[in-house]
Amino acid sequence: xxxxxxxxxxxxxxxxxxxxxxxxxxxxxxxxxxxxxxxxxxxxxxxxxxxxxxxxxxxxxxxxxxxxxxxxxxxxxxxxxxxxxxxxxxxxxxxxxxxxxxxxxxxxxxxxxxxxxxxxxxxxxxxxxxxxxxxxxxxxxxxxxxxxxxxxxxxxxxxxxxxxxxxxxxxxxxxxxxxxxxxxxxxxxxxxxxxxxxxxxxxxxxxxxxxxxxxxxxxxxxxxxxxxxxxxxxxxxxxxxxxxxxxxxxxxxx
Length: 254
Hints:
Elements: H1 2-21, H2 27-41, H3 54-62, H4 68-89, H5 94-109, H6 112-121, H7 125-140, H8 143-162, E1 167-172, E2 179-181, E3 195-200, H9 212-222, E4 240-244
Parallel strand pairs: 3-4
Antiparallel strand pairs: 1-2, 1-3
Helix pairs in contact: 1-3, 7-8
């Protein structure tokens, strides 16, 4: 749980600073860097897991930190404070520390209207619902519950999307040799000799081949329009089935 929350906190902080200062990041390299740092730190007794922080990264950017020298300077100050000033800061009220966190949190919350407006204009209803669900569980219960729920829902969405390969029927544009999806190009005409041309836009693997035969049958009998299985077939059975696989790169043994 600490690893998941720590990585999410680190990658969010990295993406925010990357968008703010015009840098590019790689989530895979971030994960490798965090893993190597924590593995190396595990050999030193008394060390804690090291991850990024949204609040500290935001404060570091606000005060002018742009390179790793800012983090090194902060580390030196923390070490000196720990060894020499800790007894004098022992009775520092928690509200003083909380005010620093609240200052950053309020600045982050000011970005919520812009993000919600962006999702609304993009019609990203799934992302908007996921964001609201995470916020709701984090406020009602705690951050751990919000992160776990959003992570589980995101994984389920990935599995659902990967298990349904995108397929469509191709038709010929009159007067040309071009073939386009009939649901995107109303002028496209299918062949009338019993040939069905199907375009598959995904790689085929064990995750999305389970329903491939049934979905092909539905395309053959009902077309690209949504229909209930109890409805009578709207189309004749095809005598020839042609696959357009130009968008497919790999097919596994399953």
